[in-house]
Amino acid sequence: MGIASAVANIFDLIFVLLIISVLLTWFRNIDWYKQPFRFLRTFSELIFAPFRKLIPPMGGLDFSPIVAFIVLEILRTVTVSFLVSMGL
Question: What's this model's pTM, rounded to 2 decimal places?
Fold first, then answer.
């Protein structure tokens, strides 16, 4: 299960980076223009922006990360299952 395991680990890393990015938004004193915060912000916006277009923030709450996590988990499950079924 080499390739499937590697792909699962990549998805896990993406989830961790996105969770860190979401949690850091609770702290107002973070300078998002300095590293490593700029990387986290840029990376998370690549994933969250398409979902934010579908579900705009309502009442000051942004639900796009929740939808993004659900879609990423579905994508992870389908991709890893396919790779396992192929014997990779």
Answer: 0.86
Contact 88, 4 (CB under 8 A): yes
Residue 2 CA to residue 23 CA, distance in Å, equals 32
> Which tens digits make up the pLDDT trace of 59-80?
888 899 999 999 999 999 999 9
pLDDT digits (tens, 9 = 90+) for 26-37: 888 888 888 889
Q: Which domain holds residue 43?
A: 2-85
Number of compact structural domains in the chain: 1
Structural Rg of the chain based on CA atoms: 15
Q: 19-47: string of b/e by CB count within 10 Å (b at 16+)? A: eebbeeeeeeeeeeeeeebeebbeebeeb
